[in-house]
Amino acid sequence: MEVKSTNQTEPCTDSNYDRKAELKAFDDSKAGVKGLVDSGVKKIPRMFHSGIDITENIATDSNLSVPVIDLRDIHNNLALREAVVTKIRSACHEWGLFQVVNHGIPISDMDEMIDGIRRFHEQDTDVRKQFYSRDLKSKILYYSNTSLFLDKFANWRDTVGCSMAPNPPKPEELPTVFRDIIIEYSKKIVKLGCAIFELLSEALGLDPSYLKELNCAEGLFIQGHYYPPCPEPELTLGTSKHTDVAFLTILLQDQLGGLQFLHENQWFNVPPVHGALLVNVGDFLQLITNDRFVSVYHRVLASHGGPRVSVASFFSGSQDPDKAKSKVYGPIKELLSEDNPPIYRDTSIGEIMAHHFAKGLDENHALLPFRL
């Protein structure tokens, strides 16, 4: 599939430049971006050049920021819960994301999860290489850039990930450097995710169990991203502009910053709050809420500093391929009316995921082909 660039400048014009060969050599090294940094590169390879001016459309209104929502005592205090539901309803509709504090996951576990991902990526290269794979059926996925051979430019980032629910790998299949903490962290993230899906259901005026009964919380995939220091951060991105192909993402980030989201065509920073988790609406949730909740574009800047580490927990529905193909999702009937007709056709998670992987990071929303 040909991916058309929306960049104003083309990153590659030299007729002698063999992009495919550079991509293949990079992938065959199995050392990722971390391997490039370890080799002492002073200039980033051309495959990473974005042709994007990252200084364009940066927000200047310092009064606008991501809502921070306190979940303390919401299970015991009805008035507090109703106030939180109101805030979440507004945040999901206006912003597409919010941060949560007092969410029940100890800061010590969050810090250890960050450290575990850092330990994995900073292992000896020969140890990391054992896990390197682009086979989506692998129990452990370690690679650099999901759609490396499809995207217009490569991101300055390496990733390790695995499905942790409903059928997690056996403990002995997990890398030893983060085995214990990812097992513990995933249990707590599932619990928090279920609690947030209840609040989202209430924010839609539905029964608290509604979204959970749609199997929104059934599948959990955790990715640990590692952004090494970049010698020329102005020439590339840590993560390209995209939305998340999931119902919901809960993001744990370290304290370095660099994450930005697009709001009213301006890029806003998401300043790290120690102890907070970022919750953002995914494409599947936008579809079933008929655009009442919005899946927000976001990106990560490359940086001289770092490394930057983040852990993304994706709630993506059923992980069973047969269920993903056969279970149909469409706008929730209770939310529709003559004034609010369906915007999307009924489809399956499998169909949306297939489109997402086929198009790569082309800056186009994954839901576009599914609109009526």
From TrEMBL:
InterPro entries found in the cross-reference section: DIOX_N, IPNS-like_FE2OG_OXY, IPNS-like_sf, Oxoglu/Fe-dep_dioxygenase_dom
TM regions (residue ranges): none
UniProt record similarity statement: Belongs to the iron/ascorbate-dependent oxidoreductase family.
Pfam families per record: 2OG-FeII_Oxy, DIOX_N
Protein name: 1-aminocyclopropane-1-carboxylate oxidase isogeny 1
Annotated Gene3D superfamilies: B-lactam Antibiotic, Isopenicillin N Synthase, Chain
UniProt source species: Cajanus cajan
Enzyme category, top tier: oxidoreductase
EC number: 1.14.17.4
PROSITE patterns: FE2OG_OXY
Domain Fe2OG dioxygenase stretches: 216-318
GO molecular function: 1-aminocyclopropane-1-carboxylate oxidase activity; dioxygenase activity; metal ion binding
Cofactor: Fe cation
Keywords tagged on the record: Iron, Metal-binding, Oxidoreductase
